[in-house]
Amino acid sequence: MKKDDCIFCKIASGEIPSTTIYEDDYNKVFFDINPASKGHCLIVPKEHYDNIYDLDEEAAGRLFGLATKVANGLKKELDLEGLNILQNNGEIAGQTVYHIHLHLIPRYAGDTVNIGLKPGEADVEELKTLADKITLE
Ligand code: 5GP
Ligand code: ZN
Question: If I label 35, which of 20, 58, 94, 128 is the partner at 20 to 30 A Cα–Cα?
């Protein structure tokens, strides 16, 4: 379903222009308007899903499947040395547009991209307890 007040629904339908790399019946790939690096693009389903929690498995398969193709397309054309794939869910995680999207962010030596994870320390017993508690439907 399309959501009236959603900017990515509007980009997906062509109502708002974007610099499009690829599109099919299900997804659109376009450059991020504020790129973190050269080639930073977004893969967006044409159907509206707020984030990972309401994405169904088929749509997820198509979205992540397409990411492999886009990654290779970027790698072939750009002189990238690495690539981050980022998908934010919720404000605290940095989500600003509430229509699910994957960021593909090419990485270059000396770039200013910052996706730093600070390693913590694990209590293995705590991890085991938690692993037993987490259920998948
Ligand atoms: P989020 O923070 O939700 O993970 O990512 C949203 C991304 O969408 C940001 O990187 C932002 O630059 C990009 N963005 C927001 N509005 C537009 C737009 O109108 N056009 C394009 N091409 N990108 C947008
Ligand atoms: Zn939307």
Answer: 58
Question: What separation in Å is there between the alpha carbon of 7 and the centre of ligand 1?
Answer: 9
- For the CA of 10, the nearest ligand: 2
Q: Lay out the sheet containing 20-23: strands in order across.
A: 20-23, 27-31, 41-45, 102-107, 82-86
pLDDT tens digits along 58-117:
999 999 999 999 999 999 999 999 999 999 999 999 999 999 999 999 999 999 999 989
Question: 3-class SS at 94?
Answer: coil
HSE (side-chain half, CA atoms, 13 Å) at 70? 30
